[in-house]
Amino acid sequence: MSQGVEFNRLMLEMRSMQADAMVRQKPVASTPEPGAPSFSEMLGQAVGKVNETQQASSQLSTAFEMGTSGVDLTDVMIASQKASVSFQAMTQVRNKLVQAYQDIMQMPV
């Protein structure tokens, strides 16, 4: 049950990030808002969060394997699944970006 809750929370975070990105969108002709993160910064932050999630999962797994008290197997499995889902989501975003780039490059000029 808690895996479903964690998955739902992760999906809500992703939707929140998507909504933030959509709110920040401006017409191409306008100048960027001062202090607003660029696309590359937002992508870098997302990759950083995925990396942090994977590192936390790895540390929790290592702690469980070493027999550290207070580390529960369910917490390890939830962290592992969260890291897996976030990595899969990032991979899908990368695939969409590559496909969009290829589509643009194949457009007639």
Q: N-to-C SSE series? A: HHH
Number of domains: 1
Q: Structural class of the helices, strands and pairings?
A: mainly alpha
**What's the number of helices?**
3
Total strand count, please?
0
Summarize the biggest pleated sheet: none
Net shape: elongated
| Low-pLDDT runs | none
Radius of gyration: 18 Å
Measured by DSSP, the beta-strand proportion falls in under 5%
Explain what you see.
The protein has one domain (2-20, 39-105). 76% of the residues lie in helices and 0% in strands. The protein contains three helices and no strands. The protein has helices spanning 2-24, 39-65, 73-105. Helix 1 (2-24) packs parallel to helix 3 (73-105) and helix 2 runs antiparallel to helix 3. The relative contact order is 0.11.
Concise overview:
With 109 residues, the chain is an all-alpha fold. The chain is built from three helices and no strands.
